[in-house]
Every structure is written in C-alpha cells, then in structure tokens.
Amino acid sequence: MMHKSWRFVPMAVLALASAGLASAPSVQAKEPSAEAVLNTKCSTCHPRTATGGLFRIDEQRKSPEGWAMTVRRMRQWHGVILTDAETRNLVKHLADRQGLAPEEAEPFRYALERRTVVESPDDADLATLCARCHSYARAGLQRRTAAEWRRLAHMHLGQWPTAEYQALARDRKWWETVSGPLPEKLAAKWPIDSTAWKTWKARPSPNLAGDWAVAGHRPGKGDYWGRMEVKRSAADSYRLSYRLTWADGSTETGEGRSVVYTGFEWRGSTRLGAEQVSEVLRASADGGRLEGRWYLDDQDAVGATMVAVRGKQAIAGLSPAALKAGETTRLVISGNALAREVSLGDGLKVDKVIAATPDSVTLMVSASAGAAAGMREIAVGKAKAPLMVYDRIASLKVEPETMVARLGGNGGPVPHAPAQFDAVAYTADNLRIGPVPAKWSVGNFDETAEHDQDAKFGGVLRPNGLFMPADAGPNPARKNLNNIANLLIKAEVAEGGATVEGSARLVVAPQRWNDAEIR
Amino acid sequence: MTSKILAAALLALGALSLDPAAALSKEYILTSTKPNTLVLVDPAARKVERTYQIAGPGAPLGIVPSPDGKIAYVITNHWGSLVGIDLDSGNEVFRADLSDGNIRARNMFGLEISPDGKEVFVMRSPVRLGQGEYEVQDVGIAVYRTDAGLNARPDRILPVPRRTTGLFMAPDGSRLYAVNWDIHTLDPKDGKVLKVDKVANWERPNYGVPDVFGVWNHYEQAKVFANPYFAVRTDLDPKDPAMARTGMLTLDFATGAVTMNEFENTSAVIFSSVVNPVRRNEVFSVYNTLSKTDTGTNQLVKRVTLPHTYYCLNISGDGKEVYVAGTISDIGIYSAETLERIGEINLPGGHDMGGTWIRMVQR
C-alpha cells in the first residue's frame, strides 16, 4: 500500500553501490586525470583561492570513504557530471593528496569496516551536536580548517533545515553553537595540519604485490586460513586470488581486485566462493601486514576479520587461539614460509604432526591438566604468536553486544539486513578465550517487547547465530503494525556439567532508506 | 432584558438564520494524502467528498482554509511552495514559491491566514546557495496578500526567532503568535514584539527545559493552541517516576493568556492536542493513544490505545466527535464522551498521509 514512493530508492542505492572504492582503474587511455577534472569541472563552483588552491577542497582531509561521499553528494546535490572513471580517479587523487594518517583514522576504523557498534565519543558536546544524527566517526574521520568546519555547519542546516528543530537541537541554541564557537573547537580537535599527516604523506606508497598468508574468523562460520596472491596491475592497483581453508575442512577460492588509498587504505572487491565481498584493510607502515575486515556486499553485518602477512617466517593466525587444559586439540598454525620447529611451552605436548608445510602446521596438541592458564607466546621457528591456555569457560559474551537488524524485502527495494552474532568465551580472569559453538535462542528484551510479542514477529535466529529479520511493511497479524522488535539474543554452552550463558540486545528496525559511505 | 436589546438579539438571530450561506453551511474535514492530494471529507456522511490533485512534486504539509471556506492554502513542492486551491473549481488560484534566485527557502511548519482572509503568513527558513558554499540566512515570516495571484511575492517579511514553529492569529487579527523557545506575540503589520511568554526559558526551580514541539495548526474550533510539553525534574532521582512530567501548554488566541500545567508522570508519547470548543476544559491528545485530559483539574480523564499511530487530530464544532489522522491512510472517528471508535474514513489510494494537517472548514 505504500510501495509507490519506494520507486525513488533504487536510484540512491545504485548510486552508492557504483561508488565502490575497489573498482579497477579505467583502461581508457584518454581518460582525463583527476587534476584535469578538478581544474575543469570542480573549479566551476570551487574557484582558485589567493593561495592557489581550490576553494573548500584544499581545506579538508578525509578517508577514501569520506571523499567518495563528498563526490557523490556533488553529483547528487549539485549536478556535477562525472563518469564513473572520473569519480574513481578523483577519489583516489584526493584521498592520496589529502587523506588521513593511519593513526588519525585508527580510532574510527569500525565505521570504515562497517561494524555496528555503540560509539563512545570522547566529547559529550560533539556527541550531542553532531553524533545525534550520524556516527561520531563521520566527523572524527575528517580534518578541516575552522573556516571549513563552519562552512560544513552551514551546509548542514542549508541542506537539512529541520536539523535545528529536532530533539537535542531544540532544547538548546543548536545553530548558534555549531555556527558559532564549535568550528574553532573542531579545528583544534581535528586540525587540517598535523605532524602525523605531514610525516605519512612524505612516505612512498608500498608495493603490496606478492604472496600472502591470510587468516581470520567469520562469526557464524568459523576460522579460516590460506593464501592470497597479489599482482600489481597499475600503481596502487592489484589483482588478487585467494585459496582458503575453513575450520570445517571446506575450501574456497576467490578472485578480486583492490586499490590502495593514502598508502595504506586497502579496499578490495572479491568474489569469494559464491559471495561478493568488500575488503577494508589497513597496510602496516612497512607493507608487511594487512589487517581489517571483509563483509558481504549486500549484508555488511556478515563478514570476517582478516590478517595477511608476507615475508619469511610470519604467522597469520592460530586456529583455535586457545587450548583447554586437560584436553587434546587440533591446532592449525598458518603463516608464510614457516619453519618446522614448533615450541609451545610447558604443559603443551605435540602428540602428532598431522601436516607441516611452509603455509601451515597442523598439530594434535595435548594440554596437561596442570598447564599454566593464561597467555603464552609460542614459536614456529623464529615466528612468534600468542596462545591462550585456559582451565574452563567462566562466562560467555555475545558479540556484538548491541546490534541492529533491519526489516526488508516484501516487494520493496530494500533487502533484509540480517545480524550475525558470535558467542565468545572468557575465563574467570576475564581473558578472552575466543568464539565457541553455542546453542542460540531469542527472547523479548523487556516487558513491552513481551507484550507486543516481538520475538514472534521480529525474525528468525538460525543455529549459527545469524538473525534473519522479518519482512518489511504492515503485518495483518500484528494489527497492521510492522515487525520491528526489541530482542534478547541468548547463547549458551555446556561447561563442566553446568551451563554458561550470555546475551546481547538486538533491535529490529525499519529499512535504511538512505545509506552512506560512512554512516 | 430590555425590549431594545431583545429586539437586537432577535434581529441578529433572524439575520443569522436568513443568511443563505450560513443556512447551507456544513462542516467538512480538509486534509491530504500522497501523492500531493488535498482531500475534502464529509465527516457526517463518513465519506470523502472530493480530492484535488495539486500540480508538481511533494506532498501537502500545512493546510489553512480561507475564512469563507472557499480556498485552501497548502504547503507543497517539498515544503518549498504555498498554493491556493479553489475548493469549488479545483483550480490553483494562488502560488508563492518560497525560493528566489540563489536563495533556497523552505517552510518550517508555521502557516496562518488573517481572519479577513486577505493575508497568509508563512514561516520561512532560507539558505543562500553561493559559489561552492551554503550561507544560512535569518528565518522570517513571509506575508503574502491572498490576491497576489500565481506568482505571489511577499508583501513583507517579519523577523522572528529561529526555530519558530506555530503561527496563530488572534480572532480580531490584531496579534500574531509565534511559538519558538518562547511564545512571541507580534504585531502582524510590522513584526514588532508586543509580548514574550517564556516557555523553554521558564524560571522554575528544579525543572529542566520543557520540550514543546508542535508543527500543526488545527486549533480553529476552540481558538486555543494546546500542545503537550515534557519536562524533567532535576531534583529527583532519574529512576523516580515523577522525574519526567507531561503537561499541557495552552494559548488562548483571543486573550493571549498562556498556561502550563502538568497532568501526569510521563507515560505516553503525545504528538498533538486539541481543545473541545464546547467543554473548553477538555483536551484531546494523540499519538499511539488517544487521551482526554481536564485542564481545569490537570487530570488525565481517560486514555485508549489506537489501532495505529496518528500524528494530528481535530474536533467537530459541536464537540462530540474527535478526528485522528496523519499517518497511514485513514481518519479515525472517536466519541469525545467515551473515546470509543465510532467510525473511520479511508482515504483514496491507500497512500500514507505524510506530515499533513487536519482542518475543519465550514462551507
């Protein structure tokens, strides 16, 4: 009944998708350079300033996603006509020339990796003035001059005139604050000039081509390890091929490509098995390590951590990362050019070497009942890695502890947005043991949810901790209300004859109609 | 009673009953639905009388009928234009585009018409679109002559504080009330501030800033603005149910008198309220519930759960029926006496009503 207005949405969704940061550079020889685009198209509205730069553009630095968002808005709001190739070149150029140093982006990587978190802003004023509408990260991933922060404030109210009427704006002089003293505060907190950026910008971009060992964990599926072959196709552009083994014994291959922005921001797009995934990784300063997250393009709550290492004798990961005292466990150590000598320390005995190659060492390990509990360092040749030994699971946490899933489908253009949970075990000393298989159930979060039978209507929790939300739109079985829900996601594991439980909160929300590169 | 006065009273009565327009006058509901459709409803017959397709994009927001019930002034074009629709012919007889050149302007809720029907008052929030930058401009009330035709330009712009929402006129047209953090009483001729009634800036010990936010104008029956406010007691433990209080703010258009009194510990969200024109101590409020409160005793009289959320409401001139509207695609009809649902009117097309208003019009 309300579907007619949805016809406008696919355009916005499409525009966002086409802004993918890992698209290969155009092969057209005559494609104009980013500088040419800046000088011919951007400068129409952004004239040269007295210092020779382009008005506004030269007074800000941001992440690749931040620049992609800006360029998209220039196309959508102000009608600049750019080919997709021009857009890609422009974003790459701007992110390289006016990006963020790794330590500047570090506190807010969760937003780039599209993780759902409850943020912890370090400034209560900014949390209310800015992050009541969008993530704190969206602001924290930018650097501007004071004048430029002020122009950004004017853009906000000019573009969204309701902003000063909303809750947490109308109880204060919101506009007077954000256009008055706030820009100077922001310019001091997140300044255009920084030593970190000056130092980082001077470094050459590393060549990341080569053979990499990769390892990671996908909630709902388990650990994986394997190889990534990276070939350079152009400056900062790569072609990738993956060969992965999952903890359940299955294998998977993948082909993809990546672009590296600002000398360290790896953005990949890979067909992995039957799934299309995006990679958001950061390269270490020495170019020897990649770390971050990949996620399914159409379900970004579903994804995996990833570490990649190269060079001799480097460990990518252990699976599992913890051994229980008194038990025998199959342990896989994956890495690059690994030696054969394994040293696990007191109380851990290698019963059998199941396989040993330069890429991985698979062992049956017995941990004695008296093995010292806690973190220890193991060695494979010269490579070292942390391994936990624990006596029992004392508590269980469900991650993420607060999560949002979104209704979708049902004839509308916005698909369901599921949530993926993982049950993570902890010791009595609150040391993280790691993800463990659990029995899942879903309940109502509070009395109101109980009354409204949210658990019945909100969606279905699958045995692997994947919550698939219900359909969007009015539900006749719910007096034509929709299927929004406030749920308690519960996990339990058996431990020593007892049951250890953990829980998380899941809000099943309506569709996200307008998505953004940084939410 | 002297015979002279009696004669005058009888004469007035006779004149009233002999006035052909008044004799034929009937009460209608004026509201809207998507896409960009004005809807005239006959509440007595429980049916949609007529729809009017408004040209251009967007969906109606504010609606004010002319005092003679012949023309509806409607905000449309994504809050960027005010159009006048002749309710007999369906023709657009007035149009004012709020943007002008490189100034992009949007109506921010406030919309009112003078009692003589000669001027409309539109709350306007402008931004200058400069080369490569936005520059937020001062807000103001654009005043248009209703005979200005299809390319109307403001006769004058009255300065007003930012964040002004409601605009309401005194019945004699001498004062214009502008609701923002406080209530400013203005001279509609030049915007001169005649009086300020403190609301957000109230000076009440142990209370935080009261939240008063109403974007509707549906107060024609009792000629009283009634809007819920939510306030927090700063001297109580946050877990104390009495910490969050809901009250009712009223502004009498004829006298300018403002009252603010709490009637309950906050237990329901309320979007908008309306005063019964017959029993003027009765206030009806709507969101997920329909409430009746008594502003004489500051008590909640009754509250019923609604089948779905409604944003706005109005009331019949005889004070007997409450009409709730403004979300999905129906007007729910409730007994003012019992709060029972006694009828409903489904709007054509089944589209949602957006942020519309619901007005009562005599024609």
UniProtKB/TrEMBL annotation, chain A:
Domain Quinohemoprotein amine dehydrogenase alpha subunit: 207-310, 317-391, 396-518
Extent of the signal sequence: 1-29
Domain Quinohemoprotein amine dehydrogenase alpha subunit haem binding: 34-197
Superkingdom of the source species: Bacteria
Keyword vocabulary terms for this entry: Signal
A Pfam entry, by short name: Qn_am_d_aII
Name of the protein in question: Quinohemoprotein amine dehydrogenase subunit alpha
TrEMBL record, chain B:
Taxonomic placement: Bacteria, Pseudomonadati, Pseudomonadota, Alphaproteobacteria, Rhodospirillales
Residues of the signal peptide: 1-23
Family annotation (InterPro entries): Host-pathogen_enzymatic-act, QH-AmDH_bsu, Quino_amine_DH_bsu, WD40/YVTN_repeat-like_dom_sf
Species annotation: Paramagnetospirillum caucaseum
Protein name stated in the entry: Quinohemoprotein amine dehydrogenase 40 kDa subunit
Keywords: Signal
Domain of life of the source: Bacteria
